[in-house]
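Q: Can I see a sequence and its folded structure?
A: Here is a first one.
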Amino acid sequence: MRVELDQVHVMGRRDRLLEIDHLALSTGECVLVAGEPGQGHSALALATTGRLAPTGGSVRLVADDGTVSDDMAQLRRVTAVVDLPGVSEPDDVMPVETVAAEDLALAGHDSTPGAVHTWLEQHALEGFEDHRVDAVEGVVRTALLTGLAAERPDVRFLVMTLPDRHGGEAYGWWHLATSYAALGYGVLVQCTRSSARDLGADLPPARGGHAHRITPVEALRLMPSAGTAGELGDTRTVVSDDPTETRVLEGTPPPDPGEPPPPPQERNEGR
């Protein structure tokens, strides 16, 4: 399955918020997109997942059998936006167990205290139940919210928006993202240019005016295998046939900052 954006632009009240020539994301891929801070990240996340109709251009869902659809309701069913500021981010004062209970309930799963504890334990998040979500480390927060988003039964694509805004090593959330791609999800990660460089992307310095700021840059595109999730050196870098459309750059793995977060668990279909 694949999501394709072509000649997409999104207008705000006065100026364009987003302008992108082409972006594609397939299941099993992990794509890193870098851009300047601002509303363009929100516009890209919402347009990619069918939650915002672009002012111009097309967003299409290509099914496994090759069928092409522009049905935004269908696109919304198979996508999830993770921790998008002002949209899907949890209230800072909420404890982790409450966030987990609410999201599990929305996904149609058991959300009783015992079920929540079991879920947190299965995702190596036990001990955080009473912590406020804004008090846990950035990679823990991202692991929590990504895992909960993946619990929704029809989701095939995950859009992780600016996990670097919570601090910590970029390798932590990148390892997490590639782990989900190795399980078969299509994962789009949005970050700042500096974070992309930390992961080995050879991005040019930011130059230009408004048009430059609203155009995201594709920094890394990886297709990890199940046994090598999070290890950039063991992933396949896919290079675009037309480098003028998107920048697809081969990254060099950064030094391991320590024990990475545990990889996600395979979905339990019987739950």
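Q: Show me another, different protein.
A: A second, unrelated one:
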Amino acid sequence: MWFELIFLFLDLICYCLFGPTASLPENKYETVFHTDIFEAFTPLPEYPKNVTRSYTFELLKVYLAPDGFTRPVWSVNGQYPGPIIRANIGDRFNITVINRLGDPSAIHWHGIEQRGINWFDGVPGTTQCPIPNGINFSYVFDLQQSGTHWYHAHILAQLVEGLRGPIIIHDPDDPNKHEYDYEYVMTVADWYHTPTDDPRMLPLLHSANYKGFDPIPDSADISGVGQYNCTIPTCTPSKFATYKVKEGKKYRFRIINMSTMSHFWVSIDKHPLTIIETDGTPVRPATVDALRINIAQRYSVVVHANQPVDSYYIKARIPESSLPVNNYTFNFDSPLLKNDQVTGILRYEGAPDKLPTYNGPSINASDCYDMDASLLKPYPLNPPVPRDENLTTLEFEINVILRDNYLQGVMNNSTYSPNLTYPTNKRIIDGDNFSTSDNVYYYHGLNSPIQIVLNNTENRTHPFHLHGHSFWIIAQGEIGSHLQPLNSLKFNFDDPPFRDIITLKELSLNVIRYYANNPGVWLLHCHMEWHIELGMVVQLVELPEIFSKYVIPNDIHRLCTSI
């Protein structure tokens, strides 16, 4: 009886503080990790009421060999990539993180908008203090959007070390649910053999007078399995990532690019790919021979197993322009620069357990751009795209520069430096003042339309991610040698892509829009991990007049006192 009264009392407190979206689902569900990424699955059962799905993430350093080369890997429960976590839209995640890394950490839930609970976005210095070593912390949030997403560390370049995994949120009303019979998750990623704290990695990137580019990966992998040219004792040749299919069936492959810095082109010999989702948004089915997928992007594609029973190569290739290099760059002689393709296998049931006999033409991975916008039309169309009335515009000029002999990633000529002991969301509620290096920008007006203009003045592409929102990509164009006025662009208000990652072409002008309806502090940043480390980040304070009245839970405050 006392326990029931306590839970009712806590539920009432949550309702009063955070509103009805935080009310606890009545049903609980004993959740089991989907630990085998090569095991097909179907959507989760529907329940009369939403359920709470509880997971435990134990953050561990373990020795693994994804590409055959053994190295320490920052992992969730000893796995790379981390285990798949799944739920239905409307469910709740209760994820307890146990940090045993020996370093502070935190988990960002990429693609989950965290409406009304900004403090669970998992960004040290912005939404929380990091989780100290030896401390447990629970992220508890309701799932208000569906699709293919992922989780990853957002501190100390731990993403590079392997701390990342898939999130799948099923929607019983998915308009494309009848397009396939089974589902798989597939990840593509670059991979490094050298830990980021090695003097030749992050310390070199941050050193004075560094003249190189971003550190070059050693290899790449599909779903945690790659092939490295093993010529040293600590390396043993690995197998191929292998997905098994039944003749005549259709498979939804949820593809996630979990890379540090690499864009990929993905294809399967003799099997076209039909796109049905991008970054959590269902799209009208569109068929392509190869899929461009930039860092942190997600696509669902349908593969029809309609070829003769056999094995077929899955190919993921990194464009040359994704790996700029000179003689000062760490790992400038990486084998990946000579063999920029990693392969897996699509194997039909009944086919012999051997390598494919057919090897189709190599992918012509000619650029690091997004898929053509005409292939990514939301289905059904989202609410009306924000027009020009009452529009708030923020404009950012983006570059990597050498300032005072140090490389810096800059937005509007300013570099971001996080305050790990006093996060921005708490500073706003406390009424604290901000310095230039905090890179803080405000906008106001509940449900007002927001326009972000991104001017990429660099001669290379950048994948930009906005936390807390998906957005409409309504215009993109070249800027040439001078910034052009927006009216020189062609705007698409009818059916623009709706996603949370946009690829900025080199020397380009890009316009995105969304509605201000999620109070909090949200990062806007390049998703190349090296550029986050260089400070190519701004903090967008959305609706401070509302957010400043929020009450941050005590568990969040306790992290700051535990550091």
